[in-house]
Each structure stands twice: as structure tokens, then as C-alpha cells.
Automatic annotation (TrEMBL):
Residues 42-109 form the Transcription regulator PadR N-terminal domain. Gene3D superfamilies: Winged helix-like DNA-binding domain superfamily/Winged helix DNA-binding domain. Pfam families: PadR. Residues 1-29 are annotated as: Disordered. It comes from Acinetobacter ursingii ANC 3649. Residues 1-21 have a biased composition (Basic and acidic residues). This is Transcription regulator PadR N-terminal domain-containing protein. PANTHER family: TRANSCRIPTIONAL REGULATOR YQJI.
Length: 179
């Protein structure tokens, strides 16, 4: 077991890295999993039954659907964090199989609303990706994301341009809501 100051330092370093990762908007994790959501999902999956890292990667890939699969570089540090927080513990040290602790169960209970919202978001994502009737909507969503990414990465936008882009997106959302 690590002492408290080592855990605090590692947790602070990880939190700093995650903030930097999310602030740059890189990778799918930033879009799919806002701060703390991946930890919550991993803890939820381990609560279902003890698991090792590879099983978690596979289950998240299945749960999210589409072309998403979390990397080992995401899952294993998440497991370390959950272990440092005393939310999980090794069940089988040889296979690195984890189980949820009582503290982890309490945390899951406290976070039930956030977990339900995350699971619903993932269900809707799977439905959109898996439904051939919605393929045009999925394509259009990807086109919008690509156009925004290109515009934001290539151009230094002034406040007026930023406002106009946001206004166009808001108008589209209102029109879609009225359909």
C-alpha cells in the first residue's frame, strides 16, 4: 500500500494530466468521457464481476459501440487511480484481476445519477451508430464535427466569428427540436 503523500502526489499529477488532455480536446476520451466518467464506468464494470484490464477494454468497446476502444494507456492508469482511492482491490494478483471494495460500492451508490446519465449517453450513441436508418444523421454529425475541427485548428477566429459559428449551431439545434 502506498503512503498518503505518494497517493496525493500521483493523484494530483494524474488530475493535471487529465485537465491538460481535456483542455486541448484531443482524442475520443475527451468527447465521450468528461472528467471522472471513465473511472465511474470502469468501477461500474468491475462491480458487475471481477475483471482484469483486457476484459474492461473489451466491455467498454462493446458498451460504447461504433469504432471506439479505450487504450491500455487509458485503462491501466484508471485502474491504478481507483486502487489508490481504495475503490478497487486485487482479487487475483497473478492475473491482475480487480474487485470492487466497500468504499467503491458506496461511491457508486453516491454517483448513481451520473452513472445512469453516462450509460444512457452510451446507449444512445450505440443506437445511432447501429441503426442504418440513422446513418444520414450520423454522417451529418461527423461532417459538422470535422468542419468545426478544421475551422478551429486552421484559423485564428475573432470573437465575432466565434459568435456567428455558435449562433449557426444554436439555430440548427432549435430547428431540429421543432421537427
Amino acid at each position: 500500500m502506498r503512503n498518503q503523500s505518494e497517493r496525493d502526489t500521483r493523484h494530483s499529477e494524474r488530475a493535471s494530466h487529465e485537465r491538460e488532455h481535456h483542455s486541448h480536446g484531443r482524442g475520443r476520451r475527451g468527447r465521450l468521457f468528461e472528467a471522472g466518467r471513465m473511472k465511474l464506468l470502469v468501477l461500474y464494470l468491475i462491480q458487475q464481476s471481477p475483471k482484469h484490464g483486457y476484459e474492461i477494454i473489451k466491455e467498454i468497446s462493446d458498451l460504447v459501440g461504433g469504432d471506439y476502444s479505450p487504450s491500455a494507456g487509458t485503462i491501466y492508469p484508471t485502474l491504478t487511480t481507483l486502487e489508490d482511492m481504495n475503490f478497487i482491490a486485487l482479487l487475483d494478483a497473478e492475473r491482475k484481476q480487480y474487485q470492487v471494495t466497500e468504499e467503491g460500492k458506496v461511491y457508486l451508490t453516491q454517483q448513481q445519477d451520473m452513472l445512469n446519465a453516462l450509460l444512457e449517453k452510451l446507449r444512445l450513441r450505440r443506437e445511432i451508430h447501429g441503426n442504418d436508418q440513422l446513418i444520414d444523421i450520423h454522417r451529418a454529425m461527423e461532417n459538422l464535427k470535422t468542419a468545426l475541427r478544421l475551422k478551429l485548428n486552421v484559423t485564428d477566429l475573432n470573437p465575432q466569428q466565434i459568435h456567428r459559428i455558435a449562433e449557426k449551431i444554436d439555430q440548427a439545434a432549435v430547428e431540429i427540436g421543432r421537427l
